[in-house]
Amino acid sequence: MKDKIRLYKRLLLLLVLLAGSPAMAAIETYEFDTPEQEALFKKMIVELRCLVCQNQNLADSNAELAVDLREKTYEMVKAGKSEADIIEYMVARYGDFVLYRPPVKSSTLFLWLGPLLFLAIAIIVAIRFIRSRQAVGADPELTDEQLQVARDLLNKENKSS
Amino acid sequence: MKSLRFAIPLIIFIGLMLLMLKGLWQDPKLVDSPLIGKPVPDFSLPELLDPSKSVEPEQFLGEVWLLNVWGSWCPECWREHGYLEELSTRHGLTVVGINWRDETADALDMLRQAGNPYTAIGVDPETTAVLDLGVYGAPESYLIDKQGIIRFKQVGAVTPQLWNSELEVLVKRLRSEG
Q1: What average pLDDT does this structure show over B19-40?
Q2: CB distance B35–A93 less than 8 Å?
Q3: Over the stretch A68-108, which tens digit does the pLDDT of each residue have?
Q4: Which of A103, A123, A143 marks a domain boundary?
Q5: A82, A103, A124 — which closes off a domain?
Q6: Of A13, A141, B91, B139, which residue has the fewest beta carbons closer than 10 angstroms?
């Protein structure tokens, strides 16, 4: 009986190990000639978007297209291509969408300047609001005539009570 | 007029919301390919039916042709297949395939089962030409003019609706061009 249980346990262990192996296979190892190349590769795969899985970069994704694009990035880095070369290659084929940081150009100007614009509007509105509040809160300056009217009103009230 | 001032932030808010809502329904993959208006990237792939031959874009210069990326593993390609055949037989459109990330036996099996609409099929198991074309997934098709310039790109299947609404007119126009 005990032997049988041990056998089952071993089979179970084997099954678990087998189930784990495809996941292991998905991890790729890349070798670089220089630390600069490795740094560039790591930088690029973080900045380039995995196109088929939204909001993941190439480094995060195991989608097949991401693997292919990672491989291509690796090849280009290995071949001594610069960051600009790699970005140009990707943008020429997949458009600006492949970049997480869109370039500044006329169609994306609002994207870049929009927040600044909103901040400026907010500051102007805030300043105007504060000034108008200050005007209300300030000591009212009354003319002599107005003071006289007020005194009369108070006197009238005192008399009637 | 002053009493309507409270509505200004509300209007801005609703405007922003509509803008973002629109973004939510937009498929970024449908953004026009930057390759439209550019020459089809050069490739040389072995022919699926006869690996001693090769398939290259320049073989189709002077024709209006459809470059179709497919694989037997892709269900949408199976659905599209019959219509591609109709386009090649009924409308005389030259359809060139790129068989992507596929096993040769599976690809041939699919052609036996579903017919072969292709004038030529290049095999690209390593995703070289396909990456150069800026492909997201299969099926994807490019309409290429007589000068070898990409004029239209379809992400997803080529359907009768697409042919009727856009492609037919475009093909006719491109054929009449010099």
Answers
A1: 81
A2: yes
A3: 899 999 999 999 999 999 999 999 998 888 888 878 888 78
A4: A103
A5: A103
A6: A141
